[in-house]
Design brief:
This protein starts with a helix and ends with a helix. The chain has one domain. The chain is mainly alpha-helical and 196 residues long.
Length: 196
């Protein structure tokens, strides 16, 4: 039981750092600030639902998809690490991940669900959690992280007001540094496996 809980905690922390709901607060606010409250909640509900489905699909079929295209988990780790590194650098340099959307409904799926919540790093982490800790831990970690993220999104305006613009940007940049470090670790792990 202790081993299960330790595995779940490790899986949760790894995925939570990558999904980074607190660090993304300024980005979420900037993407939804012109929407009515009703539409804003619909956007966040869509984002969580799409994110949950995508993570589970990749967790259970990711390796089969990789095999179909002749991609190894190490190659995906390296690719995911590079993309994560680019995203974290964009946030560190420009202070945000600016994207435009044609309609309010599309914001929930892109860019909030993908790639902000469920990017290559989250997909890689979920697949690795599945391999390292098993199906139950992987599914539970996804469920807990996205539930916590949903709660944060539900109260995002209050959190943003409490933190203030400066506080939110500081958190975003600190979390971006953690993401950058995690991205480098993914690249190192992938390269180590390939050259081992």
């Amino acid at each position: 039981m202790d081993e299960f809980l330790i595995g779940l905690l490790r899986a949760f922390i790894a995925l939570f750092i990558v999904v980074d709901p607190f660090g993304n607060i300024p980005i979420f606010v900037s993407l939804t600030e012109k929407l009515p409250v009703k539409n804003e909640r619909k956007v966040y509900n869509t984002a969580i639902l799409v994110g949950f489905i995508l993570l589970l699909i990749f967790a259970f079929t990711g390796l089969e998809i990789f095999n179909l295209f002749g991609i190894t988990i190490s190659s995906f780790e390296i690719a995911g690490g590079i993309l994560l590194l680019i995203i974290s650098i964009r946030i560190l340099v420009s202070g945000g991940f600016h994207e435009t959307a044609e309609s309010p409904e599309s914001i929930g799926a892109v860019p909030i669900a993908m790639p902000l919540l469920v990017g290559p790093g989250a997909i890689t982490t979920t697949i690795l959690n599945l391999q390292s800790f098993g199906v139950i831990v992987a599914v539970l970690s996804v469920s807990i992280v996205l539930t916590v993220t949903w709660v944060i999104l539900r109260f995002i305006d209050r959190i943003y007001r409490y933190l203030g613009k400066t506080g939110a940007m500081v958190i975003a940049r600190v979390m971006s540094l953690l993401i950058a470090a995690l991205a480098v670790q993914y690249i190192v792990n992938g390269l180590t496996t390939i050259f081992a």
